[in-house]
Amino acid sequence: MAISTLGSGIDIPSLVSQLVAAERSPIESRIARGENAAKTQLSAMGSLKSIFSSLQSSLEKLRKDGGTDARTATVQDKAGFTASADTTATVGEYKIEVESLASAHRLTSPAKAADAKIGTGKLVIEAGDTKIEVDIADGRNTLSDIRTAINTAAAGKGVQASLVNADGGQHLVLTAVDSGLEGKLRVTTSGGDGGLSALVYDPGVQTSMTETVAAKDAVVKVDGLTRTSSSNSLTDLLPGVTLNLTEAKPGETFSLKVATDDAAVQKTLQAFVTAYNASISLTKSLTAYNAETKTASALTGDSMVRGLQSSLRNMASENVVAFKALGLSINTDGTLALNTSTLTKALGEDPGALSRLFSGEEGYGADLEGMLDSVLETDGLLDSRSDSLNARLKTYDKQYEDLDRRMESLQTRYTAQFTAMEQMVTQLQGSSGFLSQQFG
After folding, report:
1. Closest CA to 364 of 328, 321, 315, 312
2. Is the pLDDT of residue 414 over 80?
3. What percent of the chain has pLDDT over 70?
4. In the chain, what percentage of residues exceed pLDDT 90?
5. I need a surface site. Which of 118, 177, 299, 316 has the fewest CB within 10 A?
């Protein structure tokens, strides 16, 4: 309802608004300062969690992902084999000779016309320990039909059937899925009209198909020790090393050298150094104080953050000798620097040095992992502080609500008071006019 201002001439709504704003301002500013400080600290906790998570991830690569044990396999040119090594491979040099390659057994049928009916009955194909029985019915017994029936029955196991259309006619070709003697084929028949005998391969009994590729095992020697394999890929000949045989070169030996993968190790360690330095720099900036401008940072004086910074520095200082041997130096500001030349030399002389520093159950890597776990785990240091700050922010929301209610009450009271005053002034003005008329 609009309030008359004819009596005193005072703009009561404007006056009340100004008085309420003057009373609200210092209280609201105090709440806002506390709220902004809490929000700034909460953001800082998020930054700390992110940077320490990155440090934890880089440490895990050194501790658990074989980051300190990366290996490389180097093979002499034209060796007849390739090689790769994982983190379990032992550093060393080996002499390898590929005497023969494993080959998959292959049989070829006599030539037939494409529409020729071969016969009926049952084909029994044995491929190593796999036995495949194929029923061949009348009307569906051309070589094309038989090929399809074999592949359907085998379902990718034991044998693969195909057709070759040569000058003399069509041939059915059977190829063992598994190479070596383990996949050797034997084909027999039973029942039917006897026409399937054209596809029999049973050496010593009856053979109609031609062996175009013999089943053969691979033979390889490592430092004079012989290993026979049905596959040309050997994963357990040298633990941690995979050999892929590509060409038989009997009587010739070639070198295989397994060494520390310096480039991979350097990359992994440098990633750790970068994450570590980012952690040191962030904790320093969050707790800094500018004496010239007398400006504090988000967490200046915070004992938790100072403690984290001290823990990082102390753990590094306690391992300064091991760090130095691996090319890691501690700068005056607490950050790390990596000398890759020193690291390469150290790993060449002692491949396990980096692993001992980071991967052991005790020592620097284990201590740092424990510290980071306590910081980052659910309900850990950072989560607890963040929960506390979020709870504080809720109290500021409550303070704003209380302030709004108090100011509404104050506005109502001031309005009532000034309205009463206005009514009194109006009455006095009326009395004054009446008296003036009487005296006049």
Report:
1. 315
2. yes
3. 95
4. 59
5. 177
Q: What's the pLDDT tens digit per position in 102-152?
A: 999 999 999 999 999 999 999 999 998 999 999 999 999 999 999 999 999
313-319 mean pLDDT: 94
Of 376, 375, 237, 207, give the one whose Cα is nearest residue 307: 375
R_g of the chain computed on alpha carbons? 44
Mean per-residue pLDDT of the chain? 89
Task: Give me the pLDDT at residue 1, please.
Answer: 38
Tokens for 240?
């941690």
Closest CA to 67 of 424, 440, 327, 355: 355
Residue 300 — very low, low, confident or very high, per pLDDT cuts 50/70/90? confident
Within 10 angstroms of residue 292's Cβ, the number of other Cβ atoms is 5
pLDDT at 430: 67
SS3 letters across the chain: CCCCCCCCCCCHHHHHHHHHHHHHHHHHHHHHHHHHHHHHHHHHHHHHHHHHHHHHHHHHHHHCCCCCCCEEEEECCCCCEEEEECCCCCCEEEEEEEEECCECCEEECCCECCCCCCCCEEEEEEECCEEEEEEECCCCCCHHHHHHHHHHHHCCCCEEEEEEEECCEEEEEEEECCCCHHHCEEEEEECCCCHHHHHCEECCCEECCEEEECCECEEEEECCEEEEECCCEEEEEECCEEEEECCCCCCCCEEEEEEECHHHHHHHHHHHHHHHHHHHHHHHHHCCEECCCCEECCCCCCHHHHHHHHHHHHHHHHCHHHHHHCCEEECCCCCEEECHHHHHHHHHHCCCHHHHHHCCCCCHHHHHHHHHHHHHCCCCHHHHHHHHHHHHHHHHHHHHHHHHHHHHHHHHHHHHHHHHHHHHHHHHHHHHHHHHHHHC
Residues paired with 185 in a beta bridge: 127
In which residue are the tokens 């979020």 written? 390
Beta carbons of 258 and 92 less than 8 angstroms apart? yes
Specify the pLDDT at position 64. Answer: 76
Mean pLDDT of 18-25: 88
Dihedral of the CA atoms 80, 85, 91, 92 (nearest 10)?
Answer: -10
**How far apart are alpha carbons 44 and 282 in whole angstroms?**
9
Q: Which of 163, 124, 120, 166 is nearest to 143 (CA)?
A: 163
Contact predicate 239/227, CB 8 Å: no
Residue 372: pLDDT over 60: yes
